[in-house]
């Protein structure tokens, strides 16, 4: 029996995250989605395609590590089962994995109410940084620790943004979260390169996508967000990528033979 390829995806209930989840529902895959809400249509699609799907409801903006702790325990349980299954073999390997490969995709993100930092709500700032930076770091740590001994391909794909590399007024929390994501991914790449079965990691900007986040940006009052007209013009000029097309491009990047060669990248690069 062939082992499935495991994908763990956050922010899978809408937008590009939902589109990625839909495209990952392919034979030979197993999918764990972590979102604030489950998606009934996604569950139906998984049943129709015969793909194992688990949907975990967690608010990544909460001040706890519940999602990461659950992920680590879940992965360790599957490792223990795989090791027990190989106990009768001539030479059971400590590197036994229950999956053919394992991939973590940190996609969840949040833009708080758009305002200069001096006019921002502290609770909203904290929530945005937890969703955009703290939760991905915690999930990376849990994923890498629990799969450390797996001698199969392991990947971490962090969904970043061009705003992590370009400052913008009234976007301090989002810019900071994505810049932090880029830089901790660079650190991970250095760490994993020292290991015999280290994971490949990349923080990838997915381009400009027509999602609720874009609606929020272009609908902001220019007095609070000077770049609002620029985002409105992108919509008017038809320069936004659909969530489905963006998901296709991101997942194609994940499958590239040189994935992880550059720990910080942009899907629009060759």
What topology emerges from the helices and strands here?
Layout: E1 5-10, H1 15-24, E2 29-35, H2 40-49, E3 52-57, H3 66-85, E4 101-106, H4 122-146, E5 154-159, H5 172-192, E6 200-205, H6 212-218, H7 228-236, H8 243-254, E7 264-266
Parallel strand pairs: 1-2, 1-4, 2-3, 4-5, 5-6, 6-7
Helix pairs in contact: 1-8, 3-4, 4-5
Estimate the helix proportion, in percent: 40-55%
Q: Identify the CATH homologous superfamily.
A: NAD(P)-binding Rossmann-like Domain
Q: State the helix count.
A: 8
**Secondary-structure arrangement, i.e. CATH architecture:** 3-Layer(aba) Sandwich
Lateral strand order in the biggest sheet: 3-2-1-4-5-6-7
Chain-averaged pLDDT: 94
Structural class label: alpha/beta
Query: Which blocks of ≥5 consecutive residues have pLDDT under 50?
Result: 87-92
Terminus-to-terminus distance: 37 Å
Strand content: 5-15%
Tally of separate domains: 1
Radius of gyration: 19 Å
* Oligomerization: single chain
- Shape label: globular
Order of helices and strands: EHEHEHEHEHEHHHE
Number of strands: 7
The largest pleated sheet is described as: 7 strands, parallel
> CATH topology, anyone?
Rossmann fold
Which CATH top level class fits?
Alpha Beta
What is shown here, in short?
With 270 residues, the protein is α/β, with parallel strands linked by helices. The chain has helices spanning 15-24, 40-49, 66-85, 122-146, 172-192, 212-218, 228-236, 243-254; strands spanning 5-10, 29-35, 52-57, 101-106, 154-159, 200-205, 264-266. It has a seven-stranded parallel sheet with strand order 3-2-1-4-5-6-7, with helices on both faces.
